[in-house]
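Narrative summary of target 7.
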Amino acid sequence: MAVTADLAKLLDKSYEDKELAELVDAPVAALAGVTDDDAKLLREALNIKTIGDLGRNKYFRAATALVTLADGAR
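Modeled conformation, tokenized:
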């Protein structure tokens, strides 16, 4: 099943036309609002280098799950 989504608001301009597989391997700074300095701090603190690393990080996944559960309990 093909899925379409407008990711323009989530990404820096130079990454807007990339395929999902490319985005997962893109640097964290490809996300709109994440600076090179932010990306450096994520790399140093949690060894997060790519968007995929960020999305698969156990701390970010745990936080997302907690927020989802809390929102569902309201």
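DSSP finds four helices and no strands in the chain.
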